[in-house]
Amino acid sequence: MSIEASIDVTKIEKKFLIEGKKGKYLSIRLKAKKDEEGHPTKDQYGNDGMIVQVIPKNLREEGLRGPIVGNYKEYIDDYLAPARAAAFKKPEAPTPEDDDLPF
Length: 103
Description:
Largest sheet: 4 strands, antiparallel
Radius of gyration: 18 Å
Number of strands: 6
Oligomer: single chain
Number of domains: 1
Number of helices: 2
Helix content: 10-25%
Structural class: mainly beta
Distance between the termini: 37 Å
Strand order of the largest sheet: 1-6-5-4
């Protein structure tokens, strides 16, 4: 499986870049899009989720959120054998007819 991402660099808040020994680093978090029932879903453009810039813990505890800087899509790599590629497919949410529940 591969993930393709697009980041709008103009939305990155430079004050939250992390200064390291070998450069400046952007810390991000991938947040999967989910439907009302919590199942993975895609947005209107086929994206699987959004990319959020991570901000310091003390600011998150105050209720602040990092900026949304982009989106990502998950792909099954074409070079994988079909049997292996099938293992990476997301399971579909069960429909009411398929749940085998007695109620």
